[in-house]
Design a protein that fits this description.
The protein has 137 residues and is of the alpha+beta class. The protein has three helices and four strands, in the order αααββββ.
């Protein structure tokens, strides 16, 4: 009877049978829970990769600064007292809080051979230490 009434109001409509019912509330909640879990895993992955990129950029900047300073010391004339000139830190790195712990640790190992240790600081914290040798030529 209801089917005939619906068919008169909406031609071509009919009542749904048991196997044609819509999505239940439980099915919808399970789907939302799965979607939420996938979203949390995805966002956690993005946060982790973002942190890794920042750490990598910090490391690259510190290595560049340390190598530049070490090359400057190697190009200076040999100093028995270990007094070497400090290179200028690029303004972009200086603005980001990078600096070199100065003066460097210079140890006289033997006549004409020194061990030089450069420490790069970022926001007051030591983040990289570079060691090399200077030879009197």
């Amino acid at each position: 009877m209801i089917g005939k009434l619906l068919n008169n109001v909406w031609p071509g409509s009919r009542l749904a049978t048991d196997d044609e019912r819509g999505v239940t509330l439980a099915e919808t909640l399970v789907a939302l829970a799965i979607f939420g879990l996938v979203a949390v895993v995805f966002l956690t992955g993005l946060a982790t990769s973002s942190k890794a990129v920042m750490v990598s950029q910090e490391r690259v900047a510190a290595e560049s600064l340390a190598k530049s300073q070490m090359e400057s010391i190697k190009s200076d004339s040999y100093s028995v007292s270990g007094n070497y000139s400090k290179t200028d830190i690029p303004i972009d790195l200086s603005d980001q809080g990078y600096d070199i712990d100065w003066p460097p640790d210079v140890q006289e190992l033997s006549s004409g051979l020194q061990k030089v240790v450069i420490i790069v600081m970022h926001n007051g914290e030591a983040i990289l230490q570079l060691e090399d040798y200077k030879v009197d030529r």
